[in-house]
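We close this part of the discussion by returning to an individual protein. Part of our work consisted of pairing the sequence of a single chain with a tokenised description of its backbone. No coordinates are needed to read the tokens, only the vocabulary itself. The amino acid sequence and the backbone structure tokens for this protein are reproduced below:
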Amino acid sequence: MNPYRKHGPLPGLLGVTASSLIIGKRFEKQADRFAYEKAGKGTGIIEFFELQKKKEQKSNDDFDVASKLLTDNRKHLSFDDYLFLNLSYYYAKTSHTLGQAMRWVYHHTPFGPHPSHDERIQAAKNYLASQA
């Protein structure tokens, strides 16, 4: 009897995908542990992921600055230019927000193979504190 006949291939495909993603996250944590326990790179891991977080925050801040510039300079722009700039701004902001949502899912659910930046930073800090 064909095992796909009753439910189709989707349940099997979902099972394989989910398990590979969970295993991927486990391997990422294992690689991080190797880096700070065996290679002595705990401080580097912390610095790298803190820089990544700052970069993401700067990107958010840049949208706030752009919004303020649009608002402050509205009276100096033609209607067409203001409309074009606003549409461009909201298109970029929407894309950015969707990207953030996807990164959240990627880092905080089993559907992403990497732990969150905060989780990786905290694991390295915990290890370094245990060595002091």
